[in-house]
């Protein structure tokens, strides 16, 4: 099983990019996510799994209290567009230089920058999206105006053009996007998602077929005809029992072990070319449990094992 020089996942140069951004969630705290995940021993775990770790630190993000919220259905649009542009470039540069981008959020709006950078390099990107939510709103359908509910719609070319700037006109093929763990959608979002061509493995499918089979199907879809696979992991995919530190929790989620199993299976197949971990909010957390979980899940996806 441990074929790659004794390690499960082939050795990588993992390039960590922290994005302390909470504009997309319109609530404070998730900007401290990158620190919480690092503090939980991330570097050490990745080194143990055989990787070289280069941490670029955090991208500069101005604090929301110094900004005014414009009354629109795209809260903090300008700030998010600016950070996305810088993040997209950093991610693009990492993959160009053969490094493995590991992006630490921050709220899920940062996926706009991450995926925007990836599609400039990969012609046909597969995306695995772990989330309690669909994040498939646009400014037309969003009930909150919070941009962290919009990154998947943005990635397939829907919604406000300003959000799509980082994509340079190349979008992700919805047929290559697979959701895992979804259990709450806004009404119009659900309707749009049904017609989207994405695959949604909601909690129902996980209960019914088990995580092992769901992941086998998910991995088939995202690897077939693609030249890269990105994992976008919203920590609220995991049940709030195990991940209390997140801003939009929803019960009935993945157990801690189901989440680990999914990522261990991904490590075994070694298909990921990039990953992001988002929505860890230390203010809402209990003694950094959620930060710990996030670090452990990242380590699992990168081949960390106890034996
Ligand atoms: N990345 C997240 N946690 N997204 C939550 C989105 C919640 C809700 N669907 C909205 O659009 O406002
Ligand atoms: Mn979510
Ligand atoms: Mn999300």
TrEMBL record:
Its EC number is 3.5.3.1. InterPro entries: Arginase, Ureohydrolase, Ureohydrolase_dom_sf, Ureohydrolase_Mn_BS. It catalyses: L-arginine + H2O = urea + L-ornithine. Gene3D superfamilies: Ureohydrolase domain. SUPFAM superfamilies: Arginase/deacetylase. Keywords: Arginine metabolism, Hydrolase, Manganese, Metal-binding. Pathway: Nitrogen metabolism; urea cycle; L-ornithine and urea from L-arginine: step 1/1. It comes from the Bacteria. It holds the Pfam family Arginase. Binds 2 manganese ions per subunit. Its cofactor is Mn(2+). Belongs to the arginase family. PANTHER family: ARGINASE. This is Arginase.
């Amino acid at each position: 099983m441990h074929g790659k020089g004794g390690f499960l996942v082939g050795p990588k140069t993992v390039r960590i990019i922290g994005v302390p951004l909470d504009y997309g969630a319109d609530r404070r705290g998730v900007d401290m996510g990158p620190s919480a995940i690092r503090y939980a021993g991330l570097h050490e775990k990745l080194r143990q799994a055989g990787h070289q770790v280069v941490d670029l630190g955090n991208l500069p993000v101005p604090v929301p209290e110094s900004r005014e919220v414009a009354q629109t259905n795209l809260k903090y649009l300008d700030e998010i567009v600016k950070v996305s542009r810088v993040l997209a470039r950093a991610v693009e540069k990492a993959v160009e230089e053969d490094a493995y981008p590991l992006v630490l959020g921050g709220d899920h709006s940062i996926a706009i920058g991450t995926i925007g950078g990836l599609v400039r390099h990969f012609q046909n990107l597969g995306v695995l999206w772990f989330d309690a939510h669909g994040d498939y709103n646009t400014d037309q359908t969003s009930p909150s105006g919070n941009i962290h509910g919009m990154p998947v719609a943005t990635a397939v070319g829907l919604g406000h053009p300003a959000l799509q700037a980082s994509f340079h006109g190349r979008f992700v093929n919805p047929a290559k996007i697979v959701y895992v763990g979804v259990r709450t959608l806004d009404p119009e979002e659900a309707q749009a998602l049904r017609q989207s061509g994405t695959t949604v493995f909601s909690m129902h499918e996980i209960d019914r077929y088990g995580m092992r089979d769901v992941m086998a199907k998910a991995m088939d879809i995202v690897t077939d005809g693609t030249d890269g696979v990105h994992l976008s992991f919203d920590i609220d995919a995991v049940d709030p029992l195990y991940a209390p530190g997140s801003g939009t929790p929803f019960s009935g989620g993945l157990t801690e072990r189901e989440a680990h199993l999914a990522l261990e299976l991904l490590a075994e197949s070694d298909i990921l070319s990039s990953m992001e971990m988002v929505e860890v909010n230390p203010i809402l957390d209990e003694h950094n449990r959620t930060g710990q979980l996030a670090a452990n899940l990242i380590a699992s996806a990168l081949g960390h094992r106890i034996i």
